[in-house]
Write a structure and sequence with these properties.
The relative contact order is 0.08. Helices cover about 30% and strands about 25% of the residues. It contains eleven helices and 16 strands. It holds the Pfam family CoiA_nuc.
């Protein structure tokens, strides 16, 4: 904690003197001033009387980072360190008097649950503030995955869906931006460092591009994981097996290079495989049937339409429209006034092992 109350005045720890009767501005309990040679001055609650407001322990990174961030974002408006919001029982690391709405900045360095992130985010929204999360070193060292994306990713103009990290040594923001998911399920992003608020507002200049999916490796990994009895693939294999096919023998006509928001669980391609296997069990089917099967397959691949700070309400509907259009273009389906008619079956591998052996040669 950098700010404490002395009588009726707020005092910054860097200006505080030992021996004062300092109180926590949030909960009103006594706090102790810590001054040392290696760590910037800060206040802390006594171990027997922790703060009733949620927060994280004052690591050196957190103490230093809050001051750096206050300076970095100063051009957006007056910055108040550790601004207390009694109505929602929260304390923002930095509160920025930005127009048209204030910004509540959270510098997260320690572990935190999804539930707590969601509660804090909702609290800031309830008081009309924009929740702005920046992550510390422990998060910057993690591989891009659903845990990070689900809790902390948000939309930022010019950067798309992104994660922001603050490096206290470089005093710069690292932005993992334009986060998306490859058709084979991998999470992808571009990474850029910015040294000023102006550069953050301006956004990136380079063109975004993504590599083509490695289908040979994808088939090989599917077969390997199924042989290892993967718990996440078993329900998908069962669904496809009941239609007379094998997951790794999926038709090339189902392949797309489309990237998606990172909400498709095991990936868009597995979803398309399962949906197609079910659709081609019919002679004719309606839009309602297709939508029902699409939703069921989405749950089966572990998809979700909601993260803490972003959502994709029409995600399945759009993906279904693209799949049906691709199958019509491939002359496997015919569009009818009230649905679709199957005119040909896609070519599944009768002997998927032979396909895999051929793909292994491509892998080298």
């Amino acid at each position: 904690m950098l700010i404490a109350k002395l009588e009726s005045t707020l005092v910054d720890a860097k200006n505080a003197q030992r021996g004062g009767s300092y109180l926590c501005p949030a909960c009103g309990q006594r706090v102790v001033l810590h001054r040392g040679t290696r760590v910037q001055p800060y206040f802390a609650h006594r171990p027997a009387a922790p703060c009733t407001f949620p927060g994280e322990g004052e690591t050196a990174q957190h103490v230093v980072g809050k001051r750096q961030l206050a300076a970095f974002f100063a051009d957006w408006g007056v910055v108040t360190l550790e601004h207390v919001l009694p109505t929602i029982q929260q304390r923002a690391d930095c509160w920025i008097a930005h127009q048209p709405r204030p910004i509540a900045l959270e510098f997260q360095c320690s572990p935190i649950s999804r539930e707590e992130v969601a509660a804090r985010t909702q609290g800031y929204r309830a008081v009309g503030a924009y929740p702005f999360w920046l992550l510390g070193k422990r998060y910057a060292q993690q591989r891009l995955g659903w845990g990070l994306i689900d809790r902390f990713a948000g939309w930022l103009k010019g950067w798309g869906l992104c994660l922001l990290f603050w490096d206290v040594t470089r005093q710069q923001v690292r932005i993992d931006h334009h986060i998306c998911q490859a058709v084979t399920g991998e999470y992808q992003c571009q990474q850029t460092w910015v040294a000023s608020l102006a550069a953050l507002v301006q956004g990136p200049h380079r063109r975004q591009w993504w590599p083509e999916p490695n289908l040979a490796r994808f088939r090989w990994e599917l077969d390997r994981d199924l042989r290892r009895s993967s718990d996440t693939l078993k329900p998908l294999q069962t669904a496809v097996y009941l239609t007379g096919h094998h997951l790794a023998g999926f038709p090339d006509s189902l392949v797309t290079t489309q990237v998606t928001p990172p909400l498709f669980g095991r990936g868009l391609l597995l979803w398309r495989i399962v949906v197609a296997a079910w659709l081609f069990e019919h002679v004719r089917f309606s839009r309602a049937t297709a939508q029902r099967l699409g939703d069921e397959a989405f749950r089966l691949v572990g998809g979700t339409t909601t993260a803490v700070r972003f959502y994709g309400a029409d995600l399945v509907q759009r993906a279904l429209g693209e799949l049906l259009a691709d199958l019509v273009a491939a002359r496997l389906l015919q569009r009818l006034p009230n649905g679709w008619r199957v005119v040909a079956q896609p070519q599944w591998a009768a002997d998927y092992t032979a396909w895999l052996e051929n793909d292994e040669k491509k892998l080298g």
